[in-house]
Each structure stands twice: as structure tokens, then as C-alpha cells.
Amino acid sequence: AELMNVEQWLVEDGGAWLVIEGLDKFGEIFTDRGVTGPDLLILTSAHLKNDFGMESLDSEGGLWTSWRSFL
Asked: Which residues of the chain have pLDDT under 70?
């Protein structure tokens, strides 16, 4: 996945980014839900908690920290 073109990412690209970040356990969740690059850009912590079932983002392998630092 070309990290500079998130708005063009396909579902597979988001999964590849999660692997790069060491968060591959979330790749299947995002792939199953068809999350694309444009979707990633608008996700909030509320989406991740409510729609993806990630109760504590700080304890979810650092997902939120990686997410915010990337975006």
C-alpha cells in the first residue's frame, strides 16, 4: 500500500497498513467490513468502539495511537 495515497486505498491496502503497524489482528475485521482508504480517513474512536467492537482502543494493541499518528 502506498501510504501517501490513503484516499485511493482499496480494502486490501488498509489490511496491509495494519500489518505494517503490527496490528494485523484487526486486518480481518476491516477486510470483512470492506473498509477502504476513504473510510479510514473518516473513522473516529466512536466508530471503532461502536461499529467494530473495540472497547478500549488504548488496550487494542495501540490501534488508535497508530491511527492518529498516521493520519
From this structure: 1-4, 55-71
Half-sphere exposure of 34 (CA within 13 A, CB side): 0
Cα distances (angstroms) measured from residue 70 to each of 26, 32, 63: 16, 22, 11
Q: What pLDDT, on a 0 to 100 scale, did the predictor assign at position 3?
A: 58
Identity of the residue numbered 9: W
Neighbouring C-alpha atoms within 13 Å toward the C-beta of 15: 13
